[in-house]
Write a structure and sequence with these properties.
By secondary structure, this protein is an all-beta fold. It contains no helices and 19 strands.
Length: 273
């Protein structure tokens, strides 16, 4: 480890890092990484049911034999001919200091759930735009990896009002079931797990975190205020190098190199020589 650490604003294009992640472990709707808000829409209800392990799901669908502990399981959707694109879940995440936004989520449809889910987004918190529609090619009782790339939609960058929502939609004039031989039912379930929003630190907006006064010396991070969330360190390739519980003094114990340090969701660059 080295004796000198230099702090500066990012001046290069770096790989994506996790802005916010929901894993639902422990049966909580709060993010495991970063900050954000999860909201039920259209009168649906939820319980916490068996989830799916990260990176085990394909877009084509899988039964998901490798499972995590919990997923966010929703039901009580509208009747077959009512409320297209009104019911589902919303994830609100500020993208301040980030650009090149992408999202991924593992979503499971039961046999009698709707076979179509629309991903919508907003840049002002009021008006919603359809981004894409997902189907259920493998039928129900399958997990699907749902991804979307917002990198060409610059209005979502550096935006405090950014949010996405996954809502069920008609297939024709009514909802149809995820399994072609089943009938749609309001009790059909749609389960969410491993919802991850990623982005690249925005070089134009990036600043030292405003909520904490901090410095690094001899590989020790010192803060004047206790952070509200986990402190994270990423490599320039986007891999997480370390994570630390909130504290005012932290031994980073990093090798020489350049890293992205996130304190209360605000990224900055540290160079350890």
């Amino acid at each position: 480890m080295c004796a000198l650490v230099y702090l500066s604003v990012l001046t290069n294009v770096f790989s994506q890092v996790e802005i916010t992640k929901w894993e639902f472990e422990g049966g909580t709707p709060s993010p495991a990484v970063g900050s954000g808000t999860l909201t039920n829409l259209g009168g649906i209800s939820n319980i916490f049911s068996t989830g799916i392990a990260p990176n085990t799901v394909s877009a084509e669908g899988t039964t998901g034999t490798t499972r995590g502990t919990f997923g966010y399981n929703t039901s009580n959707y509208p009747s077959a001919s009512n409320g297209a694109k009104t019911a589902g879940v919303q994830f609100s995440v500020s993208t301040i200091d980030y650009k090149d936004i992408q999202i991924a989520a593992d979503i499971r449809h039961s046999n009698t759930s709707a076979n179509k889910v629309v991903l919508q987004y907003t840049t002002n918190g009021t008006d919603w735009i359809d981004a894409t529609t997902y189907g259920t090619p493998a039928g129900g009782d399958n997990w699907y990896l749902r991804t979307y790339d917002f990198r060409l939609i610059t209005s979502v960058n550096n935006n405090a009002n950014f949010a996405v929502r996954y809502v069920t939609d008609f297939d024709g004039a009514t909802y149809l079931a995820a399994k072609s031989t089943s009938n749609y039912a309001t009790t059909g379930t749609i389960r969410f797990d491993n919802v991850v929003l990623k982005g690249v630190a925005n070089t134009a907006a990036l600043t030292t975190p405003k909520s904490n006064t901090w410095f690094v010396s001899n590989s020790t991070l010192t803060l004047s205020e206790l952070p509200t969330s986990t402190i994270e360190v990423y490599t320039l390739t986007g891999s997480k190098a370390a994570a630390y519980k909130p504290a005012k003094i932290i031994d980073l114990n990093l090798f020489k190199g350049i890293y992205i340090l996130k304190i209360d969701g605000k990224p900055a660059k540290i160079t350890i020589r």
